[in-house]
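User: Can you predict the 3D structure for this chain?
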Amino acid sequence: MIEPSVLYLLASGTAIHGYELSVAVNGLGLAETLVDPGAIYRCLRGLEADGCVISNWDTSGSGPARRVYQLTPAGRQRLAGWVAVIGQRVQALGNFVDMCRSVGIDDKS
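Assistant: Here is the predicted structure, written as structure tokens:
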């Protein structure tokens, strides 16, 4: 769920740098464990290679320059694809929960 999380976070705001993305992805709570920042940067490099994000160096402010990322139209399309896939999985998971409950199994069992 790293890629759709990164795409969503970029779609929902202005350009953002990798560390902020790492914190925000973990804040979404979509992974069972904390996502390693290295995985975020690998995802970003792949998305950039695919033309889904672009990056620039931000040299404003104090401290070292930071690479900031922005979503491209191709990235918005990729996120839309993820929304469709996740929506289908949500429906399938809901159906599965309903089937389990119909045979007397639930989260209180």
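The chain has a mean pLDDT of 92. The beta strands are 16-17, 53-58, 66-71.
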